[in-house]
Amino acid sequence: MICQIDKVRKFIMIWLTHEDQNNAEIKKEIEKIRAAYPQKYKVAVFYSGEEDLFECTEKLLLKNLDIER
User: Fold this and answer.
1) What is the pLDDT of residues 5-40, one digit of tens each?
2) Which residue, 47, 46, 35, 40, is CA-closest to 11?
3) d(Cα 13, Cα 26) in Å, to the nearest integer?
4) How far does the chain reach from its first CA to its final CA, in angstroms?
Protein backbone atom coordinates (compact mmCIF):
# COMPACT_ATOMS: atom_id res chain seq x y z
CA MET A 1 0.00 0.00 0.00
CA ILE A 2 1.18 3.48 -0.84
CA CYS A 3 -0.52 6.46 0.76
CA GLN A 4 0.01 9.99 -0.53
CA ILE A 5 -1.43 12.94 1.39
CA ASP A 6 -1.76 16.38 -0.18
CA LYS A 7 -2.51 18.76 2.71
CA VAL A 8 -2.77 21.78 0.41
CA ARG A 9 -5.49 20.24 -1.80
CA LYS A 10 -6.90 18.14 1.07
CA PHE A 11 -6.67 14.95 -0.92
CA ILE A 12 -5.52 11.46 0.10
CA MET A 13 -4.56 8.86 -2.51
CA ILE A 14 -4.17 5.23 -1.50
CA TRP A 15 -2.70 2.76 -3.98
CA LEU A 16 -3.29 -0.98 -3.43
CA THR A 17 -1.64 -4.00 -5.01
CA HIS A 18 -3.53 -7.26 -5.61
CA GLU A 19 -2.23 -8.62 -2.30
CA ASP A 20 -3.28 -5.46 -0.45
CA GLN A 21 -6.84 -5.64 -1.75
CA ASN A 22 -7.60 -8.86 0.15
CA ASN A 23 -5.66 -8.03 3.30
CA ALA A 24 -7.86 -7.35 6.34
CA GLU A 25 -5.07 -5.43 8.10
CA ILE A 26 -4.70 -3.09 5.12
CA LYS A 27 -8.46 -2.46 5.11
CA LYS A 28 -8.28 -1.55 8.82
CA GLU A 29 -5.35 0.78 8.08
CA ILE A 30 -7.36 2.55 5.38
CA GLU A 31 -10.19 3.13 7.85
CA LYS A 32 -7.71 4.54 10.37
CA ILE A 33 -6.39 6.92 7.72
CA ARG A 34 -9.92 8.04 6.86
CA ALA A 35 -10.73 8.61 10.54
CA ALA A 36 -7.52 10.55 11.17
CA TYR A 37 -8.37 13.33 8.71
CA PRO A 38 -11.26 15.78 8.77
CA GLN A 39 -14.23 15.24 6.48
CA LYS A 40 -12.96 18.04 4.26
CA TYR A 41 -10.33 15.61 2.92
CA LYS A 42 -11.24 13.55 -0.12
CA VAL A 43 -9.97 9.97 -0.12
CA ALA A 44 -9.36 8.01 -3.33
CA VAL A 45 -8.43 4.34 -3.23
CA PHE A 46 -6.86 2.94 -6.41
CA TYR A 47 -6.88 -0.81 -7.03
CA SER A 48 -4.37 -2.44 -9.35
CA GLY A 49 -5.88 -4.14 -12.38
CA GLU A 50 -5.37 -7.59 -13.80
CA GLU A 51 -4.56 -6.70 -17.40
CA ASP A 52 -1.22 -5.72 -18.93
CA LEU A 53 -0.63 -2.02 -18.31
CA PHE A 54 1.37 -1.49 -21.53
CA GLU A 55 -1.32 -3.07 -23.72
CA CYS A 56 -4.13 -1.15 -22.07
CA THR A 57 -2.25 2.14 -22.33
CA GLU A 58 -1.44 1.47 -25.99
CA LYS A 59 -5.10 0.72 -26.77
CA LEU A 60 -6.22 3.85 -24.96
CA LEU A 61 -3.74 6.06 -26.80
CA LEU A 62 -4.64 4.58 -30.19
CA LYS A 63 -8.34 4.99 -29.45
CA ASN A 64 -7.83 8.60 -28.39
CA LEU A 65 -5.84 9.27 -31.57
CA ASP A 66 -8.55 7.47 -33.54
CA ILE A 67 -6.03 5.05 -35.01
CA GLU A 68 -6.91 1.45 -35.70
CA ARG A 69 -4.38 -1.37 -35.95
Assistant:
1) 999 999 999 999 988 999 999 999 999 999 998 889
2) 40
3) 14
4) 36
